[in-house]
Design a protein that fits this description.
The chain has 875 residues and is of the alpha+beta class. The chain is built from 16 helices and 45 strands. It has an 8-stranded antiparallel beta barrel with strand order 1-2-3-4-9-8-7-6. Strands 21, 22, 23, 24, 25, 26, 27 and 30 form an 8-stranded mixed beta sheet that branches. Strands 12, 13, 14, 15, 16 and 17 form a 6-stranded mixed beta sheet that branches.
Length: 875
């Protein structure tokens, strides 16, 4: 490797430039990478680099690539670069070779397309690339964010180093669109001008954890104590230090001693951590911290009596270098080096480095609870810093649920609380305004009720600040207030309507106070509530009549095209539904469908031409996908290797699935989320998969299909939907529910979207698929014994005729059913829709389609909202 890079290294002084020297070995099993770097040196140009044989074959393109097939651009073949150069973005010092600013203008994977696209066979792909380089003609397909489709590099006869770069004519070619108009990095959003001109550090929202149901241990995770303080980002730039709480409120003036200490931090650095004050027991005390925080005057008197400490756990930026794209382990190593350099101590000092415990989450959680801490935080060691995102790669484990809610009023107190209040009226923000979520009357001390009442008196208003109804236990008129104050409340669960069950007051959160009408960022948001604002904005954008749209969604850019393409033709019962209609549906139901998809490998029913053309099921994704789409590799005994499965972790992915023609989504019954005692190795072998959490389903499922024929079917065809058959299926579903009730198991039911019903029994994640399938078979045999003329377990289709088929064999790893709220590719444009058991007497599958389901969810909520919160034991 040294000899090929000799020319590259001879041109650079690595003691001066931050360009990589090229010491790390390259991958040997992933698709080949490409990168295009925009390089503002003596003259602005674009550098095209293609991976081959452990190096980046490189061409300088002075005028940049063109999407117009009639335009040929000069490409000068330059020295090979190391693979690490694909990640380089920064400034090469002037006076050095290539001095100037470099950004990652585009990147992705590629393969040769001269003899058929080769993405997964690296050896064959590189052979074809080498052959093309020798012959002087290289054809390849790019799967980038800006450059896609088929391209060619053709060597000019006059000069060895001079080639031509041109675009082949395909669906990605354009004689009107200029790819160079977008001059920003696909990684950081920066331009070369941003690198050249120092600017004020961008204000970020911190990365936030999701809530995990229980502690776990895993070698790919590290754990920290959950500190009871104020989450704060510290910005050090120029001569200034600024502190911001997690919802963007500046709190610099509250902590002058901390600001003085932070001035020792290098310029252009951002720290993430928790500001804490310690109580008499030596533990972080939020109540003590609030005594300091709420004081409005000079904070100096508190410096000695209530000292505070900034406990730092992450380093998103250091000395102007953006580390957000680096793995957590890399950021932590840089943070530990900085802490040693500045002499931080966890035992004393204004700034401390938080302790970190790899793997032992369960042990740390037990010790944390013994010591009086509220819980722990787990972080995947490979996780990137996703600013403003609540990520499943960071989790918090507490003994209870808690959130912050805006106080919109209070009820009259009685007895010893007659002079204060009875209960606080709580709300959370939605796109329409403040929605009432319940009333909290427990958990207060006498002093707290007096303080809260006195504070709220300043903000009394004559009319309710809530949109929609407010549920009260008495007819007495409450006192309304402006929703300026936030209360953190512990609660057991939520009702289907989103109301809190058994709320208990924990504390006020003045550090997170919001102006009226400004949604706060809750620490543990209701999943649907958090997604609805994004869904609404997307819904509005999709009402445009343009056939192609580019939408910014949750920090990701989503490109949508061919929106007028018809997916479901018009029938007597519904109009034609287009791709725009499908995407609008996904936008509307996103808050409800995503919890049922997250962390589950997917099988996808794709119909790019609509239901009138042949579709196909796709398990393994091959080809380019956006950066926001996550995948997981799972071993296949049939293929004797791992295959890549899609995950749907966010709204952007759900919409992208609609863009590529996914009309039905089939998730696994098991999840990749960690579980104590189960492995996380899904890809190495059949044995590792058997021992993994993917062999522990969340549900026992029953698929009920009627084999009662209408008489109109073609010979050999499956039964058509008709009311008599569906009524028989509903009757057997209710009998199955009775059986489950007798053994204390709660079941949920949904329409299949076709002719049958699906029953789901939520389970603890402690049973393997074989055990669950055996239980389902016993259930089916019991039902068969009671109803031999109505039910069948026969595998032979011929023997099912006239009966409802009870399919227990669906309980196998890798088998799937349509997701709750998944569309189905049939003439009804129907949806697999969760229903209440009482509704089985009146519902019919075509009642639930792309038009009716969003309205139903808005009006009635999700009958399956609690299904993931009710794990049950089979014993």
């Amino acid at each position: 490797m040294d000899q090929p890079l000799k020319k590259y290294r001879a041109k650079r002084n690595f003691a001066v430039t931050e360009e990589p020297e090229g010491l790390a070995p390259g991958p040997d099993s992933t698709p080949l990478r490409f990168v295009v770097q925009m390089h503002d040196a003596r003259k602005l140009h674009w550098d095209l680099r293609l991976e081959c044989d452990g190096l980046l074959k490189s061409w300088a393109v002075p005028k940049g690539p063109s999407l117009d097939p009639t335009v040929k651009r000069l490409a000068v073949h330059v020295e090979d670069h190391p693979l690490e150069y694909a990640d380089f973005e920064g400034t090469i010092p002037h006076g050095q070779y290539g001095g100037g600013e470099v950004i990652v203008w585009d990147e992705g994977v590629y393969g040769p397309d001269e003899e058929g696209l080769v993405l997964h066979d690296r050896k064959e792909a590189q052979r074809q690339i080498r052959e093309g380089l020798v012959q002087g003609k290289l054809s390849f397909t790019l799967f980038g964010q800006k450059l896609r489709g088929s391209w060619a590099l053709v060597k000019m006869k006059s000069e060895d180093s001079q080639w031509l770069l041109l675009k082949h004519r395909d669906e990605f070619a354009s004689d009107t669109q200029d790819a160079l108009e977008d001059d920003r990095s696909v990684r950081t959003g920066r331009t070369t001008a941003d690198l050249r001109t120092p600017r004020q550090l961008e204000l970020w929202r911190p990365m936030a954890p999701t809530e995990a149901p229980r502690a776990f241990s895993h070698p790919e995770w590290a754990f920290e104590l959950k500190l009871d303080g104020i989450r704060a980002l510290a910005y050090r730039e120029g001569d200034s230090v600024r502190l911001y709480s997690r919802n963007g409120n500046e709190i610099t003036a509250k902590f002058p001693a901390l600001v003085r200490a932070l001035r020792a931090v290098p310029e252009a650095t951002v720290l993430d951590g928790e500001i804490v004050a310690y109580g008499p027991e030596g533990r972080p005390s939020f109540q003590t911290l609030m005594q300091r925080f709420q004081f409005e005057g000079n904070a100096a008197p508190f410096e000695a009596t209530i000292p505070i400490q900034y406990c730092v756990f992450d380093l998103p930026m250091l000395r102007g270098k953006d580390l957000r794209g680096e793995p957590l382990d890399t950021r932590r190593e840089a943070l530990e080096t900085l802490a040693a350099e500045l002499g931080w101590s966890s035992a004393s000092g204004r700034i401390a480095l938080t302790d970190r415990f790899p793997e032992i989450g369960e042990t740390l959680f037990d010790e944390a609870r013994k010591l009086g801490f509220e819980g722990i935080v787990g972080k995947k060691r490979s996780s990137r810093y996703a600013q403003g995102v609540r990520s499943s790669e960071w989790v918090k484990i507490k003994g209870y649920h808690s959130e912050e809610f805006a106080i919109g009023g209070f009820t009259k107190g009685a007895g010893f609380r007659a002079k204060t209040f009875g209960a606080l009226l709580l709300g959370e923000w939605s796109p329409e305004g403040l929605r009432h979520v319940g009333n909290c009357g427990g958990g207060f001390t006498d002093q707290q009720t007096e303080t809260i009442r006195a504070t709220l008196e300043r903000w009394v208003v004559p009319e309710s600040p809530f949109v929609g109804p407010v549920t009260l236990k008495t007819a007495e008129q409450p006192t309304w207030t402006e929703p300026r104050l936030l209360a953190e409340v512990r609660y057991q669960a939520r009702t289907r309507e989103g109301k809190l069950r058994f709320p208990i007051f924990l504390r006020l959160r003045p550090d997170l106070g919001s102006e009226p009408g400004t949604p706060p960022v809750p620490e543990t948001p209701n999943e649907a509530a958090m997604s609805r604002s994004h869904s609404r904005a997307l819904f509005d954008a999709l009402q445009s009549k343009e056939d192609a749209l580019k939408i910014d969604l949750e920090g990701d850019t989503l490109e949508l095209s061919n929106l007028s393409k018809i997916y479901w033709p018009e029938t007597e019962t519904h109009p034609a539904f287009t791709k725009r209609d499908l995407l609008t549906y996904y936008a509307q139901v996103g808050p409800w469908i995503l919890p049922h998809l997250r962390d589950r490998p997917l099988s996808l029913g794709r119909y790019p031409g609509g239901i009138d053309q042949e579709g196909f099921f796709q398990k393994h994704w091959e080809g380019k996908r956006p950066n926001f789409v996550e995948t997981v590799d799972i071993y296949s005994s049939h293929n004797r290797r791992a295959g890549e499965y899609m995950l749907c972790q966010n709204l952007a992915t759900l919409l992208w699935l609609g863009q590529v023609g996914v009309l039905e989504i089939h998730p696994w019954y098991s999840r990749i989320a960690p579980e104590p005692g189960a492995g996380q190795d899904f890809a190495s072998s059949e044995a590792s998969l058997d021992a993994s959490v993917l062999d522990r389903p969340d549900f026992l499922v029953v698929d009920l299909d009627p084999y009662l024929y209408s008489g109109l079917e073609k010979e050999g065809a499956e039964p058509e939907l008709h009311r008599e058959a569906f009524a028989a299926t509903c009757a057997m579903a209710l009998e199955t529910k009775k059986l489950l009730d007798t053994v204390g198991l709660q079941a949920f039911v949904k329409t299949s979207g076709k002719t049958g019903l699906h029953l789901y029994v939520p389970l603890q994640r402690i049973y393997g698929y074989d055990a669950v399938r055996a239980m389902a078979q016993t259930l089916g045999q019991t039902l068969l014994g009671a109803f031999p003329k109505q039910v069948t377990l026969e595998w032979s289709v011929v023997k099912r005729k006239g009966k409802v088929f009870f399919d227990h064999n669906q309980n196998a790893r890798g088998k799937t059913l349509a997701a709750p709220y998944s569309p189905r590719p049939n003439a009804f444009a129907s949806v697999s829709c969760p229903v209440e058991w009482e509704e089985l007497e009146s519902v019919y599958p075509p009642d639930f389609d792309l038009r009716s389901v969003p309205e139903r969810l808005q009006n009635q909520g999700d009958p399956w909202e609690a299904i993931l919160e009710l794990p049950q034991s089979l014993t």
